[in-house]
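Tutorial sheet, problem 5. The two components below are modelled jointly, 289 residues in total.
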Amino acid sequence: MMAAIVNLNQPAHTVHWHFFTMTVSNVVVIVLMLVVFVLAVLVPFPGSGRKGRPR
Amino acid sequence: MAALPPEKLLPDAQPSYMASWIYVFGVLSLVSLVLIIASGSILTLKGPGWWHFTSVGHFFNSIHLWSVELFFFFLVIHLWGKYWMAAWRGGRARVWMTGAVAFIVAVPCALTGYVSQQNFDAQWISTQAKDGLNAAGVGAFFNVTNFGQMYSYHVLLLPLAVVALVAAHILLVRKHGIVPPFELAPRASAAGLETEGRPVAREDHGSGNGARHGSGTESHPVAESGSPRPGRTT
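Model answer (structure tokens):
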């Protein structure tokens, strides 16, 4: 069986910042969502500039 | 049928401003939901012994888990996008509300799933969650350490609510059409050449109108300068 990419057989790593505490995995997911959201807004949709848009 | 004739229910063209990745994430959420329902139905039929102790059961358990993770990932991006587009404009309050409430109902739907796993993870999550729910005063009615109650919520009540809300959301999108973009300030106005207070046509005003047929947005390709269109109900 293929081993997990990340060793899960240990206590979770956490990020502490004043009152803020969150596991690294959750922070990674949230940052990834923000990055994908920015890309979804900025990356042009294929074919959207082809017709009907005077430049 | 009067509100949703076939050409509006299944249109063969859409407004040009639908060319946005934000709608792709809405559809990806839908695909994830279909996978969740399909894999969850199989898990329900087979039971905890199957999903814990057989390789095929593990596989379907993983499909179910990762579909949920992706469902929330895609749905949050769709929700953020629609929030910043102010998607409730132009008589679309119900479209926005059904989508937002579907997200809110999906959260306890996922929570009841995590506490129904029948493993140490479920025990940990439920004993952590009970403190918060007890502090909120709902622990007596919604007991996360009661497997039978959580499982019933997870496989029947909450999925029914989510599916009903999502179905209503999609039908309302079909009925009202997608929200038009905010009107940008024309370049002439930005350069100080604009006359006082008079609304000016956007550069590509009407270009989207010409590219669509039966889109469900009637004859309004764009909204008025960021203001809602009051009284628009169809």
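Marking note: The radius of gyration of chain B is 22 Å. Full credit if you identified this.
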